[in-house]
Amino acid sequence: MTHIIAEPCIGVKDAACVDVCPVDCIYGKDEETWKMLFIHPEECIDCGLCVDACPVQAIFAAEETPDEWESYIAKNYEQFDLTPP
Fold it and tell me: How far is CA 13 from the centre of its chain?
């Protein structure tokens, strides 16, 4: 299982989740034009620390992602050239 970041993150420039991640698996903020962050699904250890740190409640365990943001599961995988499960 991995965590994913969904639509509420778009346009939010708060990277509190990056600061608490013990394995540095959240990417995007170092790019000049970043619009949202992504969690690398193969690096995520499913600790859940990022969930509580997210100021806009945009991070979910993949299997708990709300239906309206289910497409973000694939977007997180594709960001790292991986195939979603």
Answer: 13
Yes or no: say if 77 and 83 are a contact pair by the CB < 8 Å rule.
yes
Domain boundaries, the chain: 3-78
Give the architecture (CATH level 2) of 3-78: 2-Layer Sandwich (3.30)
Sequence letter at residue 40:
H
Mean per-residue pLDDT over the chain, rounded: 92
**Exposed e or buried b for every residue in 6-30, given b needs 16+ CB within 10 A?**
bebbeebeebebbebbeeebbbbee
pLDDT tens figures, 9-37: 999 888 999 999 999 999 987 777 788 99
What integer pLDDT is reported at residue 3 of this predicted model?
96
Dihedral over Cα of 83, 51, 44, 31: its sign: positive
Nearest-angstrom CA–CA distance, 44 and 4: 9
